[in-house]
Design a protein that fits this description.
This protein has helices spanning 15-31, 150-157, and strands at 33-35, 38-40, 50-54, 63-66, 78-85, 90-99, 106-115, 122-131, 142-149, 168-169. With 171 residues, the chain is mostly beta strands. The strands form two sheets. An eight-stranded antiparallel beta sheet has the order 3-4-5-6-7-8-9-10. The chain is flat and about 55 Å long.
């Protein structure tokens, strides 16, 4: 089995800016109300393009789907599921997308998590791609994982400071 390794350089953003963005997104999501399948923004306007199709808003297991512009129906090929939602401990989401391309049908699953939206300490990402088009496409499958210690990352990107170990790790 072939194994590839790749290095990605992440450009640092100011920590306070990142923490403000995370808190603002959590606040916006928490202040969005669910009325059946429809979602309403804090100012009362409907949230376009997204429906709650299962579970309770922002509770583990809640599933959201984008809405087709043509008929207003939820897209059966794409789904966002809440794995956890606790701004003090962990927020984690899973996104599943199916591509029904006749030449290369595939299923992509990505999970993204963050410990503590109040003061983010660690972020993680896992992804897997599973083609379903016969013998030749099995070589297009893959998985990846990343964990990022945010304290060490900002320490590593600060001028003149270096962490004792790398801020990220793969599988």
């Amino acid at each position: 089995m072939a194994r590839f390794q790749h290095t990605v350089t992440l450009v640092p953003v100011p920590r306070r800016w990142w923490e403000t963005c995370v808190a603002t997104l959590h606040d916006l999501a928490q202040d969005t109300a669910a009325e059946g399948a429809r979602l309403r923004l804090p100012d009362g306007r409907p949230l376009p393009g997204l429906r709650l199709v299962r579970g309770r808003h922002l509770r583990p297991g809640a599933q959201y789907r984008p809405v087709h512009d043509e008929d207003g129906e939820p897209d059966a090929d794409r789904c966002l599921t809440v794995l956890s939602w606790d701004r003090r401990r962990e927020t984690a989401l899973e996104v599943v997308a199916l591509d029904d391309d006749p030449v290369h049908p595939a299923r992509l699953v990505c999970a993204l998590g963050l410990t503590s939206a109040e003061r983010p300490r660690e972020a993680w990402l896992s992804a897997s791609l599973h083609p379903s088009g016969g013998e030749r496409t099995k070589h297009l499958a893959g998985t990846g994982r990343l964990r990022l210690d945010l304290d060490r990352w900002w320490q590593a990107t600060s001028p003149g400071r270096h962490p004792s170990r790398a801020p990220s790790a793969g599988p």
